[in-house]
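Support reply, case 0932

Customer input (verbatim):
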Amino acid sequence: MSAFDDYVKWMSGGNDLSRLSTGDRSALDLNAIGGGLSAGLEGVAAGSKIASGFAGLDAAKYVSAQLRQNAGQTVAAGQRQAFDVDRQTQMIQSRALAVAAASGGGASDPGVVSIMAQTAAEGAYRKAMALFNAEDKAQGMESQADSAMYEGKVAKNNAIVSGVLQTGQAGTSLMRTRAQGKSLYDRFSGGLGKSEWTGEH
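Our regenerated output:
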């Protein structure tokens, strides 16, 4: 007896198939094949759903990592901009002192002190704004990264639940087909089929 014969026998309630006519046996074969294909396709669909959930999580991890990298680069760019503002402020102050000295003024002259103070205040403001804007953008990217990871985890969990439920449907489909096979066998054999509970005819 082949593996297929064993499968058809199982799908018809474990009954002896040798007493059936060729036509009746063909009907049981088709029932078993159809039920197996249906359950198999349900199983494949379940596996596909679960795999897509894990793929979605992998994509979320990639997006999240990219956003975090961008956030780090944004902070670094802000720090570089703040450094440039600081350097420009120092250059402006140095030029102001040079111009004052060339015109006979000193660093302690009220006009020079006022220009130096205004330049320092403006430089400090621009430096602070550069750092603040960079941190603000980076925090937004970090929040997006957290959101992407959360959505990826939720999608994965939903896909697993959906896949498990579909696996249950595959089992249900197989059992329904087996019950149909048993019913067909009983009809073809005139009710001489084996009892599922006692194993007796």
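We compared this against your earlier run and they match. Two observations from our side: The radius of gyration is 39 Å. The mean pLDDT is 88. Please reopen the case if you see a mismatch on your end.
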